[in-house]
Design goal:
The complex is a heterotrimer of chains A (about 350), B (about 325) and C (about 280). Chain A is globular, with a radius of gyration of 21 Å. Chain A has 11 helices and 14 strands. Chain A is an alpha/beta fold and about 350 residues long. Chain A has helices at about 45-55, 80-90, 100-105, 110-125, 145-155, 165, 175-190, 205-225, 235-240, 260-265, 270-275, and strands spanning about 5-15, 20-30, 35-40, 65-70, 75, 95, 135, 140, 195-200, 225-230, 245-250, 250-255, 325-330, 330-335. Among the domains of chain A are: about 105-190, no CATH class; about 265-340, no CATH class. Chain B is an alpha/beta fold and about 325 residues long. Chain B has a single domain, classed as P-loop containing nucleotide triphosphate hydrolases (Rossmann fold, 3-Layer(aba) Sandwich). Chain B is about 30% helix and about 20% strand. Chain C is mostly helical and about 280 residues long. Chain C has a single domain, classed as Orthogonal Bundle (MetI-like fold). Chain C has helices at about 5-30, 70-105, 105-120, 125-135, 140-150, 150-165, 170-175, 180-215, 230-235, 245-275. The chains are: A alpha/beta (about 350), B alpha/beta (about 325), C mainly alpha (about 280). Chains A and B meet through helix 8, helix 9, helix 10 and helix 11 of A and helix 7, helix 8 and helix 10 of B.
């Protein structure tokens, strides 16, 4: 199996008005080619930060990479100059976000934005020979027929009805689900190896969410893309992912193949999350919420971050920090319950 | 049923849309049929979940029942009385009917102390003395799991879950009989959501409350409710006891909705089996006949021609479809 | 707020003027002289004419031998406080009108806003001059002229802010608590728009001071020999080249006053913005 992404001992600090916050703390993660991996956690766990760090879009003044590397196919993304990073961003690694309205340019038609992405890809492959989208003074833009055809194909790939019609529409004329698909089409136009999706369906209706997630699974199956889905919804992860990575307060607490994770959740936080999800009527199973609240990340801890809320906390949990270890095949946990 | 706490008969709420309208000739004046003939009932002490996606009308339904907007047609009966005809004083209604809103951040006045927020219904709807108001407000705060000293705090000092608890405390301060809960946990993290759901169960038992729960989250609806009504584009398309609607949905939309609802079970990936296409229809220009027909895998000519009525499946379970035999 | 040096400077300036204005007002009421020299001296009380600024006369003396510093001080209660009076009344009228319009909406909103538009269209200086021509000048009449024309932007602002607030869930909750629009306006809407109104008002006081100085420059202020900053600038115009301090210093005082409010307003905006 080819390793697409290798995150080693990676940390990110944020400068906030309340002090420095360690948003990511010694993250170790490996993503294989054509894997559908879900980063799951509640707000503030660092999952979005990891996605942004991978594509190199951390806010420059506020975020600081503390240590570690993110290696994409052997290249350390964190050491690239902005110019070099641009070569990877979009063409090798693409990202889609939660609110397509802010990610799509409201003043440009869908076709033009997808066309730009296509042209960018061609330029990267063949800097001299690629064509540009000509601008006709006074009448906006005009897609060369070859690019238009490819844009239509991308829209059809994401199952947008009437692609030749939608290509000429503006983002505000589309519904939320369609906008999200257009964004996926744009991201795919550069034929990326890795697609990072940050809560892409959180703002969508349930049935629309199902359609978009199904589409993402198809993309993974048909195009061989590796997909990293960032979500707060463990149930969503269970429905589409091959592997689930649970994060808490900036650290990975459990990392397992999806069936292993749900048949045998090891970390108390994962177990807690699962027992929070309502399933069936209240007579059937009581919800047991995790007591306490998410810790204040401005305070550095040298011991287990989940310890104050953990029903299985032991003495050692308040003194040392557990490391992520493999407890069975393809199932890693960071917890002293499974040895030191 | 005579012992229904809340009952609606053919309730309708239409809005006029003037977009693109010529003001002189009034041509192109469109009507948005947000709620288009809804009949439901909630018995005392029970929970009815109204589920649906955006644009289905569930929030408008909630606001119409709370008399925040006047209905366009139909009847609303609450605690034996008709409340929509303007003859009953709304203060009398609000003593027994309250609402909790979706967004905890905008539910509380940022310039008011928590204690005053919880006391507002008492001050506005009852003639209690100041001391009684304070005592009752304090009891409400404790009932939702917050200590008395929260009364002196301001909303910006509270977390999302705490804010929602304050909103609930406010809603129960007059000890109402029915609470309308509009997506009470959608804005909250998973563990906080679980806490609030448990709280709602406890309060229902303690104060013999009825709930009308508006939500798009099937799992939450399944957890809290005794009966479920599924709405689509302004109509109730399926209605019955929760267990029946969940396990044996008969309307094609309900079936798609149940399949789409993500369950934490990687062995049952129903989400990937979904067959629905298209989007929720426009409220101004809905499809003719059964509004679901453009997206329905079972649709035939009659579905475009005629609106199906709610047909009885079992004693309490109904669905509005011309071809219930196809989904049996 | 005091962490920001600029707003601290603004606060000091404003407080300085405020204290001066109050002291001068007390002096008038008690009929005592707190200034180093009389502002309107009798012929036997004047000093030498056209003296440049010195320790004895910090702002120099004018063509009649009056101490300019004392004159500036005596004018302060009028020229400075008019800002508070006009803006204060504008905030009151504007907030209630606009706040109510935003809350109720519909026909009431339309009517109130059209009335606002009519007043908005009135040109400030022209109205002031007309009133000055008919009723005479002086701070009283000019205050009235300014108050008539100053409130429309506040009504607009209050309405805009009120619209933002009116859709919040806590307003609906208030309706569900049986509260009537009047209660909602005073208890919920006005407190929540007060921050924005305060920032705008603070920045605006400086403008009123400037406009009133303009009016007194045109001669519409208190009758001479009563001093007004703007009037002094006009009166000492002829000596601009020979004895520049006479016209420039009152002008500078006006500027400092305006800047003070500007800085203070920005400071308040930052404080409230963070909170």
């Amino acid at each position: 199996m080819v390793t697409v992404l290798q995150v080693s001992d990676f940390s990110v600090d944020y400068r906030t008005s309340r002090g420095e916050v360690r948003a990511l703390d010694s993250i170790n993660l490996r993503v294989e080619a054509n894997e559908f991996i879900a980063l799951v956690g509640e707000s503030g766990c660092g999952k979005t930060t990891l996605g942004l760090a991978t594509i190199g879009l951390l806010p420059p003044k506020v975020a600081r990479i503390g240590s570690g590397i993110i290696s994409y196919k052997g290249t350390d993304l964190t050491k690239l100059s902005p110019k070099e990073a641009r070569k990877y961003r979009g063409s090798e690694i693409a990202m889609i976000f939660q609110e397509p309205l802010t990610s799509l340019n409201p003043l440009k038609r869908i076709g033009e934005q997808i066309g730009e992405a296509i042209v960018l890809r061609r330029q990267k492959e063949d800097p001299k020979g690629a064509e540009r989208i000509p601008r006709i003074p006074g009448r906006g833009w005009k897609l060369p027929p070859q690019i238009r055809e490819q844009a239509e194909r991308m829209l059809a790939l994401v199952r947008i009805p009437d692609p030749d019609h939608i290509i000429d529409r503006y983002p505000f004329e589309l519904s939320g689900g369609m906008r999200q698909r257009a964004m996926i089409a744009m991201a795919l136009s550069q034929q990326p190896e890795l697609l990072i999706a940050d809560e892409p369906t959180t703002a969508l209706d349930v049935t629309t969410q199902a359609q978009v997630l199904k589409l993402m699974k198809e993309i993974k199956d048909k195009l061989g893309t590796t997909i990293m889905l960032v979500t707060h919804d463990l149930a969503v992860a269970s429905q589409v992912a091959d592997r689930v990575v649970v994060m808490y307060a900036g650290q990975i607490v459990e990392d397992a193949e999806v069936h292993a994770m749900f048949s045998n959740p090891r970390h108390p936080y994962t177990q807690g999350l699962l027992s929070c999800i309502p399933a069936g009527s209240r007579e059937g199973r009581q919800l047991t919420p995790i007591k306490g609240t998410i810790p204040d990340l401005t305070l550095r801890r040298e011991w287990c971050r989940f310890q104050p809320r953990c029903p299985a906390a032991m003495d050692i949990c308040a003194r040392r920090e557990p490391q992520l270890k493999e407890v069975e095949k393809d199932h890693r946990v960071a917890c002293f319950l499974y040895g030191e | 049923m005579a012992n229904d706490l809340l009952k609606t008969v053919d309730l309708r709420k239409h809005f006029k849309s003037t977009r693109g309208m010529n003001p002189l000739t009034r041509a192109k004046e469109r009507v948005i049929r947000a709620v288009d003939g809804v009949s439901l009932s909630i018995p005392g002490g029970k929970t009815l979940a109204v589920v649906g996606e955006s644009g289905c009308g569930k929030t408008t339904l909630a606001r119409t029942l709370a008399l925040l907007v006047p209905p366009t047609g139909g009847e609303i009966y609450f605690d034996g009385q008709r409340i929509d005809d303007g003859k009953v004083d709304d203060k009398e209604v609000y003593r027994k009917l309250q609402m909790v809103f979706q967004d905890p951040d905008s539910s509380l006045d940022p310039m008011m102390k928590v204690g005053d927020i919880v006391a507002e219904p008492l001050r506005g709807l009852t003639s209690m003395s100041d001391a009684e108001v304070r005592k009752t407000a304090l009891e409400s705060l404790i009932a939702v799991g917050l200590s008395g000293d929260f009364a002196e705090r301001f909303p910006d000092q509270l977390s999302g879950g705490q804010k929602q608890r304050v909103a609930i405390a406010r809603a129960i301060s007059t000890r109402p009989r029915l609470l309308i809960l509009d997506e009470p946990t959608s804005a909250l993290d998973a563990s906080v959501q679980a806490q609030i759901l448990n709280l709602l169960v406890e309060l229902q038992r303690k104060f013999s409350l009825s709930y009308m729960l508006i939500t798009h989250n099937i799992a939450v609806a399944a957890y809290l409710s005794d009966a479920m009504a599924v709405m689509y584009a302004g109509n109730v398309v399926e209605y019955g006891p929760t267990s029946e609607v969940l396990e044996k949905p008969r309307h094609p939309y309900t079936m798609a909705l149940m399949k789409s609802a993500p369950t934490p079970d990687p062995w049952k990936r129903t989400l990937l089996q979904i067959e629905i296409a298209g989007e929720v229809p426009s409220a101004i220009d809905p499809p003719s006949g059964c509004k679901f027909n453009p997206r329905c895998p079972f649709a035939e000519a009659v579905c475009v021609a005629e609106v199906p009525a709610l047909t009885r499946i079992t004693e309490e379970h109904t669905a509005a479809c011309h071809f219930l035999q196809k989904t049996a | 707020m005091t962490s920001n040096k600029q707003s601290l400077v603004g606060l000091i300036i404003v407080l300085g003027f405020l204290v001066t204005a109050l002291l001068m007002e007390v002096a008038v009421l008690l009929n005592i002289q707190l200034t180093p020299y009389p502002a309107n001296p009798l012929p036997n009380q004047v000093s030498a004419t056209l003296l440049p600024p010195s320790f004895a006369h910090p702002f120099g003396t004018d063509n009649i031998g009056r101490d300019v510093f004392s004159r500036v001080l005596v004018a302060t209660p009028y020229d400075f406080m008019i800002g508070f009076v006009v803006v204060g009344s504008a905030v009151l009228v504007g907030s209630m009108l606009g706040g109510f319009a935003g809350l109720r909406g519909g026909l009431l909103d339309e009517v109130l806003m059209r009335v606002t538009d009519v007043f908005f269209a009135l040109p400030v200086l022209l109205i002031a001059m007309v009133i000055g021509a008919i009723l005479g000048g002086g701070i009283g009449n000019m205050s009235v002229a300014l108050m008539i024309t100053w409130w429309p932007p506040y009504a607009r602002l209050a309405r805009g802010e009120s619209l933002k607030v009116a859709h919040q869930n806590y307003i609906e909750a208030s309706r569900l608590s049986g509260q009537r629009p009047r209660h909602i306006l005073f208890r919920h809407i006005l407190p929540n728009i007060s921050g924005t109104m305060l920032v705008y008002a603070t920045l605006d006081i400086g403008t009123v001071i400037l406009v009133y100085s303009g009016l007194t420059y045109l001669g519409l202020g208190n009758k001479p020999p009563a001093p007004d900053w703007g009037q002094m600038v006009a009166a000492y115009n002829s000596w601009l080249l020979s004895d520049p301090w006479l016209a420039l210093i009152p002008g500078l005082i006006i500027s400092v006053g305006v800047i003070g409010f500007s800085l203070l307003g920005d400071g308040i905006k930052e404080t409230l913005g963070i909170r």
